[in-house]
Amino acid sequence: MCGRYASSRAPSDLVAEFEIEAGNVRESVEELGENYNVAPTNQVVAVVERKNRDQPDETIRKLTTVKWGLVPSWAKDTSIGSRLINARMETVAEKPAFKKAFATRRCILPADGYYEWYTAEEKVNGKPVKQPYFIHPPDGSILSMAGLYEIWRDKSVEDPDKDEAWLWTCTVLTTSATDDLGRIHDRMPLLVERERYDAWLDPLSSNTDDLLELLVPAAPGRLEAYAVSKAVSSVKNNGPHLLDPLPPDGEDPQDSPTTLF
Fold it and tell me: Do 62 and 26 contact (CB within 8 A), yes or no?
């Protein structure tokens, strides 16, 4: 699964990477800022492509913010979102919670990298030790995670023209981890390569087989992983220090009583 990630890119970098016109960046993106410990229910940056209301055959690509944890349009309330932070590639085209979004509401969730926890055989006080790892492109490029988004109508807001009448949410697509990363966790987010951005985001395309072929796990060597402090395990901790590799001796700053986070 993908349950935490880091997102610190400037909006200008994302505009350039995903070829978005400056006027199609929502103000909420600028307000969001850097987040080195993105967790479910957080607002996150997303690249979406929507039909042009004035020209139905044209689309508009936008940079916006959505809440992580997908709430299907048919949901009675938003509580279901906390259970739908990931969608498995193997079943995404059939599952009722994801089927409609997969057909027409696909997005890209830009990240620096994501965290996974390796469960060691050793135990402390009878509990398995879980060591977090940061997994990212070693060349510093943007990690373009494949996602879906939904728009849920909040009927408690009478006026449909108000922004708060609509809740935008998302989920991250996952697949089996490649051999070199599978030792840490058996699942990993699916990626959208740059040459496939257009096809993946296109809301006018809905052929299931074609869409599934666009998604690929990271090629061997495309990502690297290194151990980081257990401080990332708490959503209360944030900042670029969470990406620091553990020192060669493996001593975790989190274990020092004098360390402040």
Answer: yes
Q: Which stretches of the chain are DSSP H helices? A: 11-17, 27-32, 99-104, 179-182, 197-201, 208-214
- Does this model's pTM top 0.90? yes
CA distance 197 to 192: 6
- Adjacent-strand bridge partners of 131: 118
Q: Work out the average pLDDT over 10-20.
A: 97
Give the active site residue among 107, 116, 150, 170.
Answer: 116
| Eight-class DSSP state of 63 | E
170 is catalytic: no
Identity of the residue numbered 78: T
The amino acid at 98: F
Query: Catalytic residue at 107?
Result: no
115, 200, 221, 226, 227 from 247: Cα distances, Å: 18, 40, 23, 10, 9
Model confidence pLDDT, tens digit, residues 49-97: 998 888 878 899 999 999 999 999 999 999 999 999 999 999 999 999 9
**Residues 107-158: tens digit of each pLDDT:** 999 999 999 998 877 777 778 888 999 999 999 999 999 999 999 999 999 9
CA atoms of 87 and 241, how far apart (whole Å): 30
